[in-house]
Amino acid sequence: MKKTLLFTILFLGMMTLQAQDIHFGARAAGNFTNFTASGDDASDFNDISKGKTNFELGFFAEFMVSDNFAIAPELNYATSGNVWEDKDGDFKFKSTISTSYIQLPIMFKYYVNENISLNFGTQIGFLSSAQSTTEVTYNGETETDVNDVKENFNSNESGINLGGSYKMENGLFFDFRYFIGTSELLTGTTDSNIKSSAIKFGVGYFFN
């Protein structure tokens, strides 16, 4: 992890020296996240996985290294999670996982023109919190149990972002991203390899 942070700092330092122009801004996004499994019992897990609506907020710097190419590191606070639901007659089960991360994405942008860019990037997130809320309903009566499950999650999550953005002349922009998690979410040995994904719709503003 220390090597990753050191590489990121050195990389951004090089970009600052080489950049033709530097822009700063803020961005917010609504995300629909989901956990999916592969391996043993994956189909049972995925059948009851419903996904969850979340958000992210952050700041970014955009380094223009050429007329069409930019590199944009970000610092975000993001919520994530998932919902599992199952029902059998009078029995209903619902489990909601709510997590939060400090994320460090690095986006690579190719500007097709002054307004439209195609974006690709890597991302690492550092786990801040993880909580589970379980609701069990039987014969119309519901029992709720809330637990801190941070120790069950790995301390960081990595993945890639794919998407695009549209920037207006007044500095306002809109973007779309699809996040693909590449690391295992849970600690220890599990029968199913569980990773996250997210569909993100964002809006932001360039300060300069």
Q: In words, what does this structure look like?
A:
There is one protein chain. With 208 residues, the chain is mostly beta strands. The protein has a single domain (2-206), classed as Beta Barrel (Porin). The chain contains 2 helices and 9 strands. It has helices at residues 2-18, 42-47; strands at 21-39, 52-64, 69-88, 91-111, 116-138, 141-148, 156-167, 172-181, 192-206. An 8-stranded antiparallel beta barrel has the order 1-2-3-4-5-7-8-9. A hairpin with a 4-residue loop joins strand 4 (91-111) and strand 5. The longest helix is centred in the N-terminal third of the chain and has 17 residues, at 2-18. The radius of gyration is 20 Å and the shape is elongated. The mean pLDDT is 87.
